[in-house]
Structure formats: structure tokens, C-alpha cells
């Protein structure tokens, strides 16, 4: 696989192109032969696996279990919830037949018209309908509640404009679907999972997020409330990174799921759903990476440390190998993932550029002179700083450095967001700041009309009504009507 | 969820019904609203997750990486490999449209005829075609080889008769797809993965398997050789539990994947593919379970030990809790998964039956009198034996017991298979033994005609030509023609 390491477009030249090139050059993903569907390559998938493992642990710690529901959903299920069908019908892949047959002209296979389904099936765009149809049989009494299920799955939404990880027709995700006795319990669950997402984003992805509630026009189709975490990319645009929905009794009513409550009365079940997807890969890449390639937070890097020997001939290499082996073992024992790249068919300079491109957090370089001096060169990917250290104790140094880098990468993103977050009071100032890129905190009168007008005129949407922060009332920057608090506006992915 | 613990059909009365009931009663899986598609319930999925984790570790130890390829495949890809299309075209779910719209009569949604795909897409029944179309771009030179990718995914085959786990339209599986420089290397890989499967089956599932090669008529569609592991169920039928295919250059030719070899010549790439699926759940259930419910090997049991207190009133319970907590902590520290069921809304007898049904390997029971005596009751699920032990040191005892049970469960299955494996020399004897149930080792002349005749007359198929064991030549039991060695016949799932 030939690499073109040097000609990565600079962010300042074309941010969007930089992203598209980086995803491909760093071997994360590529377009497939099927429109809008991506191939997630091994290196990209290894990062996703680390995300999955961590999230899955967090779901289980909060009492959830995994299950699996069908890929295909009867078309009629979609119609049961009015908002839901409105939101998803226009992007459904539809299965109409169940067999192919040989073409009569021998040109290949054609759809067998005799194998037509009585009712068409859609590939799940999300699974509320099939899951609530299943829950109907699981729930009779309050004793059967809560149900706290999660599913890791692929879903499909026929998107017209796609971009690797950010918007693809097929994507991988997890979707939690919970069922509760009371409104309060369901609302608590919704917020609890939002907090799990925000903790994951900040602690593991090193991506600072704003937690908030979506306005009615940005809600999930079928939800009473949608909570979101919003991250800021380096071009100042917002990326919705995870959502948690309070579904009220909408799906219970649509699928007639009632239970006998503690007062012995029949009542509809309360629901939540929540999900994050391979879109997080996009957030991770765009938040931290630079003109040399990926920058990965150590917590999610498949390779945390790469060791590259500088040698001439097998004898020199053998000596370096001998010195490096105990370092590798010790690092592995400390839970650090290490790769020793002593291949002799690539030059060190090529290796350096390749591991930089792939965002390996720490690079250790050891040559013949280092061996004599008892030293080793350390390069940290986040700042590209190179320093020389004693080989003695290098393992502890590296372990501490990885922790420091995790903090530093987060701080850098946090400081960037702070520097690109603006409070404005007039619509004029709003437009001005918006064009610079970033989050703009402004007062809004709470009406969908004003929201739509702002979107139409500036392409900015309300990313969320933030949960934390200043709650001082004010006046809408457009209409002058009263506003309960500032909301977060931004252009977005 | 109401449980009907008592009325599980006995194996001796109706083995097939026993299986169907057990899968549902033990909360492993159930039918969904979509024909042939199952819901894997949390308890069943927890077992599958343990299998996945273990297999994934074994794949990685043998140098493989995970990736993800598209769910949908262009219809025309299937036609590229002649045998492949023959094998899969008749069971493909076909996507023909990408949008629904509201019905004009307001009755719901209908397929939008204007959103018809130019080329229909099929839901992957297996991914050789889409993956080899992708590999084409990854491979130029021998330096790009080998490629050792695995994918965890859902696949879809429109089956007419389905049974939970054993044969479902949608199932979960992993599919390895590797690309190699030489025939030898690809053949080695095929056998290596067969050995990984057999090690997994025997060591973790405690299911003894026969390793062998399929006859031409039972080969994977597009393979030059299919290797298999075959397990014997308690009704004497065979269950194909995993397959590893040597694909030769068939898919490389179909998708024009050539590489520059070490002699600087263009050559087609050599391929393998290999997979196991949620069908393994069926093998696990049917090999070990009994008339009281599931029997799970400790290595794959989501809950290895359940502790049930016998108490009257909160005061007694508090004392038992106090004594049990350090036991739980110590067991967890030893890597044993423990559940303490001190719920007071279910009687001990109900709990006992429920955990038996669910196959929890070890049950510990502790009552007020035990506390006084410093004793605890231990029940092992494989033999249903109850014994009393000192509380002191119970953790080590349980840990050893789990290891012993893992061995014992395997031995029981192994002995069963030995007792139901027969060598026969005449066709008459063959039919007689076959009706008793089991594997019949007999000579066969190597022709598809004789194989077909035997299948037609007895419903037995050649499960495999075994790799290990007696290789003495002989004469075909049907035609009297020469035979290289005995092959394994059985009726099968």
C-alpha cells in the first residue's frame, strides 16, 4: 500500500479536504463500491474497538445489558409513531424480494419477480419500533421493569451527501433502549446516559463537550426531549457527538405496551433511547489532528508507543534488539501497547512520517550512539517535541508522559473552544462572530419561527440549550422578546 | 416475565421440542415479528459475548486484525464467481428502493416508485465478493501480503425453515478473509484457523469435534476445499460448527486481484475464508443441557456462581449478607463471576429451579443453621450433586470445582460421542447404526453419485473426511469399489 505521506493538504488551506485526505492516508476508512457505504480499515477499526470496549464497560457499570434485535423491520411498524415515520421514511433502504435467479440471456442474476414479499421490510435506520414491538411481550407488571438493554449494531439511512465517518449510509453504533415505570425514572435515565457520553468524550476521547437539550425542531423523531453532547471542531463548526432521548410514552402507545403498576392499574411504559456511532471517529480526528496527520489521545490509541531502531547491519540491530526487549516487556506489563518496528526494508525517516501520520502518541528512537551513552530519544506526537532521556527508567517516564499527553490534548481542545466561544447581544455581532467560526451564545425568544429565520439567514442552528452555565434571562437578539437563557448557536456537521 | 420452569419437555419424549422450549424458557432467544429473524435476549447474548471475546483474542494471537465491510453488495458482484452465485442467489434479500412515502389514502407508508435503485443491492449472505473487490485496491505487491482480516457482522440468508440459533435468516458471525502470496501459505492458514476453531470448541465450549475435509458436494460455494469441525448432539445428529475454506485463486480471478510476486511477475492472489456463527449457541445448548435446563461450561457461563441465602426476616438476612460479602469479593478477585440473589420476593425453591434452568454452574446456599455451623451447601449443575462444606476456604474449593466441571462436561460429551460412533463395513449395518443415532465411520468410493445415493436412501451425509485417525484403505460399503479411508456419515442439523 503506497503511502503519500507528504502531500496532506494543510488545514488552513482547505479544512474539509484535509479531513477527507487524512481519513484515507492514515488508513482509517475508505469509500466502498456501494454508494455511501464505507470500509472501515483495520487501523480505524482498532480505534473504534477501543471506544466500544470502554463504552461497553461504562454501560455495564450503569446496569445495562446487551441484546440483539433484527436488522429488518416490517414497513408498517414505521407508521405506528407519527413523528418517527415522518423522520425516517425518506431515507429507508427497502427490501422487496427474497431471491435472485439467473437471467435468461445468461448475463448474470436478476431479481426473481415470483419472490416478492407480501410486506416490504426496511433495513433499520434505528430500532425503536422493532424493539418496542418485542418489549410488548416482555412487560406485564412493574416487576418486569426497568428493562435496560443496549445493542451494538449497524444501521442504514439513505443519505444523499456522505462523508467518511461523519455521514454515511451505513454506520455502526450502539443504541440503548430502556423501559421504565415512571416518567421521573425515564428522565433520570436519559440524563444519566448523557453524562456517560460526556464522561467518555472528555476523559477518553479528550474532546470537551457542551451538554444540553435540543430545541423542538432538532429533536429525534418520536422523542419528547433530546439531550445532546456538542463538540467543537478546529474549523469552529459543531459536531453532534451523542444523543439521549426521553421518549415519554410515545412508543409504548404506538405498540400498546402497558404494565400493571404498583397501584394495580394498567399504564403505558415510559421509554428512553440513546446512541453514539462511528461518527465519534470523525469527532476524534477533527478535534486533535494537525497538518502532520492524526493526533490520538493515548487512551484510545491502538499503538501507544512505537520504538524505532537506527542501525547499520544486523550486528548493530542485534545489540539494539537486546536492549529494547526488556523495555517492551516492562511497558507491556504496565499496560502500555508497544510496537517495535525493526523492519529493514523501510528507512527511519519513512517510519517517522508514517507513525506521525497515524498519530502514535510516543516515539522512541535508539541508535548505536544512544546505546553507548545509555540514552534514548523521545518524541511526543501532540507537541512534536523531541527530548533525550536516560534509558534507565524510560518506562516510567513514558507511562507518565502518556498520562500528561492525555491531559494536554484535552486542555488544548478545551482552550481552543474557550477562545472560539462568544457571547453576543445583537444579531449583527452574532453574524460577525459566526463567520469567524465557533460557538455563539445568544438570547433567543424560544420560537421555532425565529430559530428558522436565523438558520435561513446564517446557516447556524441552535446546537442546544446548555444544561450548565449562565441562566440569566435576557432579550432575543432578533425579535427583542424575552429569553430564559442564552443558547448555543453554531454552524454544524 | 412469567417463567414456566417445570413443564420443559423431556429430551427422551421429543428432543427437538425440548431444544425449542429450552431456548425460550432459559431466556436465550425468541422469534421476532420478522420471519426467520430472532431476538437474542440478554442472557443468550451474554453467552455469545463470552464466545466472541475468547475467539477474538485467539484471532488476534494468530496475527489477525478486525475491519468492517459494507452490509450491502451490488447484485452483479455475486455473478462474478460462478459457484458462488449458484450457492447464494436463491436466498438473497434484495434491496430495490431507497425511500418510502406516505400512502395517498393515509393508511401508512408505501414504497416510493421513483426511488428505485439502478442496480439492486443484496444484503450480504457472506462477504467474499465485496471484500475481494476492496482488496483489489489494497494489493499491488507481495509486500502488501498477507492480509489477515476478520469481521464481526450480521449476515442474511433467506431460509425457508428456521430454528432459533441453528438456522435463522439473519445471524451473527465472524468471517475471516485472508490474502496470500502462495498456495502453500493459504492452505496453512486454512488449517490454522480450523485448529483455532477446534481448540475453541473443545477447550471453552467443552464440545468435542471431529476435524475434517468436506466432500466436493458439501463445499462452500466458491471454495477449492472446505474444512469443518463437526460436533455430535445428544440425539446423535451432527452439527457443523465451523468451517474454514481454501478458496484458491477463484475470488482473485473473479475480481482481478493480481500482485507482483518476488520474481517480479504478475500473479493472482491466494485466498481463504473462515467463519463461525451464533449457530455455536445451538451446539453449546444441545451438547450439554439436560431435562432440568441448560448446562453451561464454566468458561462460557455469564454467571459462574450464584449464592442464595435462606432466611426469615431482615435480621437473619443481614447476618448472612455480612458473611457472604467477603466470599463474593474473594471470588471476584479470583476472576469468578458471582451473583448474590438475596431478593425477598421470590422463594428459594423458585430461585433454585430458575438458576438450574439457566445453567449456572455452581450454586451456594447459606441459611441460619449453616452460619452457626460454619458450613455452606454447594450444588454443581453438571451432576446436580449437593454437598456441604466448611465456609472457610470455600472460594478455593469453588474455583477448583469450576475447573473440574469444565473437564467433566467435556469428558461426558466425549464419552457420549465415543459410545455413539460406529465402524461399519456393510450398507445394512450402516442403516441399522444410523437409526440408533450417531456418527458412522464407513468406506465410500469417493464418487458424488454414491454419496447422493446414500443421502437419498438414508438421509445421511458425509460430514467429513477426517484429518486424524485411521487411514486404512478399504472397499465402499455400497459399490465395493476401493476407498482410501473411512469417512464420517451422520444425519445432521
Automatic annotation (TrEMBL), chains A, B:
Record-level Gene Ontology MF annotations: ATP binding; proline-tRNA ligase activity
Reaction(s) catalysed (UniProt annotation): tRNA(Pro) + L-proline + ATP = L-prolyl-tRNA(Pro) + AMP + diphosphate
PROSITE patterns hit by this protein: AA_TRNA_LIGASE_II
Residue spans crossing the bilayer: none
Taxon lineage: Bacteria, Pseudomonadati, Bacteroidota, Bacteroidia, Bacteroidales
Species this chain originates from: Bacteroides coprosuis DSM 18011
EC number: 6.1.1.15
Cellular component, GO annotation: aminoacyl-tRNA synthetase multienzyme complex; cytoplasm
Record text on subunit structure and interactions: Homodimer.
Domain Aminoacyl-transfer RNA synthetases class-II family profile: 30-297
Protein name according to UniProt: Proline--tRNA ligase
Enzyme class label: ligase
Role noted for this protein: Catalyzes the attachment of proline to tRNA(Pro) in a two-step reaction: proline is first activated by ATP to form Pro-AMP and then transferred to the acceptor end of tRNA(Pro).
Gene encoding the protein: proS
One of the protein's GO biological processes: prolyl-tRNA aminoacylation
Keyword hit for Cell inner membrane: no
Record localization: Cytoplasm
UniProt record similarity statement: Belongs to the class-II aminoacyl-tRNA synthetase family. ProS type 3 subfamily.
Signal peptide extent: none
Amino acid at each position: 500500500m503506497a503511502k503519500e505521506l507528504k502531500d496532506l493538504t494543510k488545514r488552513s488551506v482547505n479544512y474539509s479536504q484535509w479531513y477527507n485526505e487524512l481519513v484515507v492516508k492514515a488508513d482509517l476508512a475508505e469509500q466502498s463500491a456501494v454508494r455511501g457505504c464505507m470500509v472501515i480499515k483495520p487501523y480505524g477499526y482498532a480505534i473504534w474497538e477501543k471506544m466500544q470496549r470502554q463504552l461497553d464497560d461504562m454501560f455495564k457499570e450503569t446496569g445495562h445489558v446487551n441484546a440483539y434485535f433484527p436488522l429488518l423491520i416490517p414497513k408498517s411498524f414505521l407508521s405506528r409513531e407519527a413523528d418517527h415515520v415522518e423522520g425516517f421514511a425518506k431515507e429507508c433502504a427497502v427490501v422487496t424480494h427474497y431471491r435472485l435467479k439467473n437471467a435468461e440471456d445468461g448475463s448474470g442474476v436478476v431479481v426473481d419477480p415470483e419472490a416478492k414479499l407480501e410486506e416490504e421490510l426496511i433495513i433499520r435506520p434505528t430500532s425503536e419500533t422493532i424493539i418496542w414491538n418485542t418489549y410488548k411481550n416482555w412487560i406485564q407488571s412493574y416487576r418486569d421493569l426497568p428493562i435496560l438493554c443496549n445493542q451494538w449494531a449497524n444501521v442504514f439511512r439513505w443519505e444523499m451527501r456522505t462523508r467518511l465517518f461523519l455521514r454515511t449510509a451505513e454506520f455502526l453504533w450502539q443504541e440503548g433502549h430502556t423501559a421504565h415505570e415512571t416518567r421521573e425514572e425515564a428522565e433520570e435515565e436519559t440524563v444519566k446516559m448523557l453524562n456517560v457520553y460526556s464522561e467518555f468524550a472528555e476523559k477518553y476521547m479528550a474532546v470537551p463537550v457542551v451538554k444540553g437539550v435540543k430545541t423542538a425542531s432538532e429533536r429525534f423523531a418520536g422523542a419528547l426531549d433530546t439531550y445532546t453532547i456538542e463538540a467543537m471542531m478546529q474549523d469552529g463548526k459543531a459536531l453532534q457527538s451523542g444523543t439521549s432521548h426521553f421518549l415519554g410514552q410515545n412508543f409504548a402507545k404506538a405498540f400498546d405496551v402497558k404494565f400493571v403498576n404498583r397501584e394495580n392499574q394498567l399504564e403505558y411504559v415510559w421509554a428512553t433511547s440513546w446512541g453514539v456511532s462511528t461518527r465519534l471517529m470523525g469527532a476524534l480526528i477533527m478535534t486533535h489532528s494537525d497538518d502532520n496527520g492524526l493526533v490520538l489521545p493515548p487512551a484510545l490509541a491502538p499503538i501507544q508507543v512505537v520504538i524505532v531502531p537506527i542501525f547499520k547491519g544486523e550486528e548493530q540491530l542485534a545489540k539494539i534488539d537486546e536492549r529494547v526487549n526488556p523495555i517492551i516487556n516492562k511497558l507491556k506489563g504496565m499496560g502500555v501497547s508497544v510496537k517495535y518496528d525493526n523492519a529493514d526494508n523501510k528507512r527511519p525517516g519513512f517510519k517517522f512520517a508514517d507513525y506521525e501520520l497515524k498519530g502514535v502518541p510516543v516515539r522512541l528512537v535508539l541508535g548505536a550512539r544512544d546505546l553507548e551513552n545509555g540514552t534514548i530519544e523521545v518524541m511526543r506526537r501532540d507537541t512534536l517535541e523531541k527530548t533525550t532521556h536516560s534509558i534507565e527508567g524510560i518506562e516510567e517516564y513514558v507511562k507518565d508522559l502518556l498520562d500528561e499527553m492525555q491531559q494536554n490534548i484535552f486542555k488544548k481542545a478545551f482552550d481552543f473552544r474557550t477562545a472560539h466561544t462568544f457571547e453576543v447581544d445583537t444579531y449583527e455581532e452574532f453574524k460577525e462572530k459566526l463567520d469567524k467560526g465557533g460557538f455563539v451564545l445568544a438570547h433567543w425568544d424560544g420560537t421555532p419561527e425565529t430559530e428558522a429565520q436565523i438558520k435561513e439567514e446564517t446557516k447556524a442552528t441552535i446546537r442546544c440549550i446548555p444544561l450548565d452555565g449562565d441562566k440569566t434571562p435576557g432579550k432575543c437578539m432578533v425579535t427583542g422578546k424575552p429569553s430564559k437563557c442564552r443558547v448555543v448557536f453554531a454552524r454544524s456537521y
